[in-house]
Model the fold of this input.
Amino acid sequence: MPSVPKFDRCSLVRILVLSLTALACVKEPSTSAAGQSQVESADTAADHLTLQGIERRAQAVYAAVAPAIGRIEYAQPENSEVRYGSGGGVIVTADGYVITTGNATRALFGDTLVIHLPDGRRVKAAGLGWSTEWNIGLVKIAESGTWPHVELARAAKGAAGQLCVALGYPYRWQSGGLRYDSMPNLSLGSVTQSSSTWFTSSCRANDHGSGLFNLDGQLLGLTSGITPGKDTLHTQADVIRSHLPGLIAGKNLDRDRLVPAATESTQSSVSDRSQPQQTEDDGTAAAGIARAKQASIRFRAVGSDSRGLSGVIVTPDGHVVTCGHHRRLPGERVEIFLPDGRDVAGVVLGTNFVSDVGVLKITDQGPWPYAEMGDSTILKPGSSCVVMGYPVEHLGRQPLVRETTTIEPEGDAWSTLLWTSKYDQRPGNSGGGIFDREGRVVGVVKGGTVRVGQEQMFHVRIEVLRKQWEALSVGTPVEVQQADPLAESVAVFDRLGKDSQPAVLEVLRDNSPCAIGTIISSDGKVITKASELFGEISCRLADGRVLAAKVENVSSEHDLAILKIDATNLSTIAWSASLDTSVGSLVAAILPGKAPSYGVVSIAARSIPADAGSLGVELRDSDRGLVVERAPQRGGLPLRQGDIILELAGRPTPNLNAYRELIAPSAGAAIAVPGDPIRVSVRRSDESLQLHFQLPSRSGESQRSSSFQSVFDIQVPLKPNLCGGPIIDTSGRAVGISIAAREQGRTHVVPAMIVRGLMN
Done:
């Protein structure tokens, strides 16, 4: 990029942050709940589904509920200085009970917990009861006080087609670690599927423990699972409420619900159970394993060409137990393939996505070979088990059989998970059976995830299926959303986008698209993302013309640049006069030649600190200078092994210390941040080279996605090369410029107030 003048720092770069009056919407309790989202609305019922009605209600829910959404942080007792994030939680009582996920509460029991509140307070807390079966847990704020909260007693059921918002704390990668915003993030969507115990939504709830609310501010449920590219999973609030007494009592609800009383009374301590259970093999074990093999099946949806997943027939009339992450709903037809060569018809009876279990039924006439359901609670560590299933590359009709042993993970409380030693787990094996020595089913393969650094794999205990058998085996239908209630938003933004598109163009670097540009004057001035501007820059207009572009000004603190092209009578974008864009506002990204991508403002404007930079290669000091010890084979970096790094942006780098003080200084600003273009002088053999490239950053994001003075976020997923364009509101006016695509479908936006100041 040629040397260009920088904008003078303007006083108007300070964007208004979320108004403190929003916190005042959460009343301190008297006899009623503090922070209960009582969304005052004079809207008529008909107005609730208009674009403006949805927007007003989403904004009101955020203002009322956000103060009751906390972020939970913990430290291991042996090292209280090392802290970890564990997702969010919803305060549900004035005296500080916080609903969060069961997996987090179980893992954090006995650790030092800290809850970060949106008003800036950091309060100590302790873990109480939990259930991994329903992935819910309870934490209690240990400090005295009256806390903002959402009243669980007023919780409502998530019904298919219902509009909803999720509030939580998605992580943000920075400098090699996790960073969080001080205020919760909002996502708008609708309930897409609903059962009596769980439901899914189109909300991009980016952390476990997010609260999901209807547009009246009532708690519908808790985020239980996040699957990239698919709907978000939630536990219904009714389930939370029904188990609240046990959670308050600090119970391990998994043990309370799943371990028979007789077994519980005879179980000894972990140390007493250190020896594996031994049984004398009189031939019954071999016979049991043979029966288990004949009962192990593969299934797939009717009409699918996939290899499918695995399951086990457990009754002579054809009930099949399997995992829940096949994501099939009750009533859906499946094909079932038996080891004896028969292909039979089946149907899904029940699926619990939260517990990850399901039941199918063979609809052809039986009887069928089956394996009995056993008892995982009596197994001791080291007990021999057999895993059977059908990995996708396994083409035979007989299941693949692998041996394993049960283990008791160190420090892990008893839960719905049955842990075993590592075995060769591959896709397609999910839903297959874990069998004891006699061929009885004691668990269902959950997916075979291996704990980091440990040779351990987990499965769902068969007791979960036993406990939920009545609900899973009756075939109760799941409500499914028939039409998107936000369809009107799409239609409105489609119309608004057609008016704005002539003011949007493609920015090309060396003839390849690198960003979007927004026309800000009819005589050819364009504002766009600055860090993408190196090499030969040109612009492709809506009418197809490609014109050379010259960089006139750059604002590094906002990563914005103004280009000039030789054109006149161009359409320009209309700007919003608002000084602030409230969380919950509906917006859309305008893209050249494409339909607008719409979403919602998810978090108010704030600064984003710079990530630590790196050349993306391994360096070492040598008698020749700073040498590239190792360079990645992929990634497109022009540096090569053996290169001597002489200068960064004209600054000498004689050794590692000098390099580090430029790229990641101990104090002050770095010479560049990840994503910034940088010129690197190197000596390669006897040749001196000037290399110009962007500092590497995280894949899947814009190259530069940090070090912004003020940006707000929108829940609109954009590709990295589609930033630099206008974000419009429901009036069709631009409220900002998209500046960086981030992980989890979020996009940073420079507010219109700043952009307009830079244009003057």
About this structure: The mean pLDDT is 84. The CA atoms of residues 180 and 697 lie 19 Å apart. The chain has four domains: 32-248, 271-479, 487-609+702-759, 618-694.
